[in-house]
Input
Amino acid sequence: MKKALIVAVLLVAGTGVAFASSLGLPWFVDNADNAVSLSNVGGVLGLVFLHNNLSSDITASVAYFSQDGNPLPIAGSTTFNISANASIAFRPVADDPESGGGQEGLEGALVPNRPRDVDPKKNGSLVITWAGDPTDIQGAYQQYRNQNQALSFLLPPGV
Output
């Protein structure tokens, strides 16, 4: 009887625990100017898209890494919000608000940029984490370059 009680308590307690989930972008480049037309990009413009599949807001966090895999510490907060059922787009290196003709909406502009004080390059990788299920957020990456050349791929959930 004691064993059954312990198992029941563990099952009830286990259902209220939120686990951390993540998705990663294995490589990005984002060295284009701000407020450029996507059909006439000089350099490479990288955009990360994240969609919140829940009917409630999600607070997520971003971590950046150099091309060698070294963590790039962000001064200040690493967190940002994705509203319920909403999608955001952000450039990993640039501040490019849509109010100035750029590609980042209000929430996307609040995602911290890749720090360039330790490593000044405009490339690397990133990992987005949040408390919840791996299916709560889905993502994609698009890269634009000269004369309408583009590539895109989905970002599979991590653990």
User: Anything to note?
Assistant: Strands lie at 20-29, 45-52, 58-65, 71-72, 79-82, 87-90, 123-131, 137-145, 149-155. The first strand starts at residue 20 and ends at 29.
